[in-house]
Amino acid sequence: MTQQPSSIGAALAANFLGHSPAWYKRTIVLFLAVNPLLFVISPSIAGWALVLEFIFTLAMALRCYPLQPGGLLALEAVAIGMTSPAAVFEEVFNGFEVVLLLIFMVAGIFFLKQLLLFMFTNALLAVRSKRLLSLLFCALAALLSAFLDALTVMAVVITSAAGFFAVYHKAASGKQYHLVDHDPSNDAEVRELEREELEQFRSFLRSIVMHAAVGTALGGVMTLVGEPQNLLVATVAGWDFPEFFVRMLPVSGPVLVVGLLTCLLVEKRRWFGYGAELPQRVRAVLEDYARAERDNRTAHDRAVLVVQAVAALLLVAGLAFHVAAVGLVGLALIVIATAFAGVTEEHRIGHAFQEALPFTALLVVFFAVVAVIHEQHLFSPVVDWVLALPPEVQPATFYLANGVLSAISDNVFVATIYISEVQAALEAGAIDRAQFDVLAVAVNTGTNLPSVATPNGQAAFLFLLTSAFAPLVRLSYLRMVAMALPYAVALTVTGFLAVAYIL
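Below the sequence we write its predicted structure tokens.
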């Protein structure tokens, strides 16, 4: 039995940051102890220490969700005077549209899951060519992420893939079909062939899900609702849905083409863990399952699919014509999708908000750290240096500065910092409106594209890595980084060239 703490103090120490490693807990305590001393010596040094400490908590997101350690750092910053509650509230108020997006849009897409699951399942079984299937999943994820929340699209892909694995595992475990043609007396040979088929299926699912994850980044950069930072940038710039799309197109268009070509290349060459085919016997099991699901689908189930399809079309129209703030469009989606699907119980509606609210809370902590940056003028020297460069060099420099930070930290946090500094430069007269628009594009693309290099930068990648599905297909942190590498290089370089020479 696990020995229980003998005192309240010991219990508090044991409970601090839950199951995080001891070295991580000690590091956070050290940060909290050092910051007040640094603030006495120099508020600027203390501010930079806080920013680096917060980036550390984001980079260690797999060890401990950043809300708790990052929140403690933010609370300490307010307590010792690095910023004020009023300044934090002002930052949150300025980003209120993003908060609404995370609360209502993510929850709204939750009620389209049956439709999305239906689409991905049929796509997997309808296309037999692995290259075309990979391209389809990547392109479909990109299309959906351009109008829906990338996290929810990723959740649907994970749910679909996990469902395929469960169906196969159940059939294989129950010996409901013969995995291989074999001599029944040679059980060792059977087990070895079954193991090889299982590993091939795992590799197939890994590649499909990774293509879809990259697809969410390809589509997410293109529109106002694709990623939370997009709306943040658009709100500061005053762009609506069509204008945002047009502004990003000189960069997002070439990146999309290169991303899809990269998908085909890695599948054809079988590089970086891609290229595994779906075993034929596994396909037979999945097709039998899909046929049974189709035969058992009731009139109610079909009606729900129709309602969700209509709601999705209304969502796209509402976003395209900017009929209301994005979060309010998401709330309208919740009302329509639930009212006509018979979802009227409070607990079923409440469940939809569970995925988004932890990140929404973390976003408010982002804003608290941004308030510290503004109060202490931490990034002003950096921005002043960039703005002192020739105007034609500034966008590419901003793109690289955003990209480096976004690869190791959360891209929403990075975008929040830089777009605020660019806005301050505009208000101070350091740049004109035309240059501001170009720099805003550089900030948005710089935080969206290089961030695919690691799970730390992209919320969809981190969501995949921390899901229960990742261990099933042996998708570790290092394997994800390796599989993302060709995409990260291709997208980053293409985005940089587009920002430097097309904008």
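DSSP finds 24 helices and no strands in the chain.
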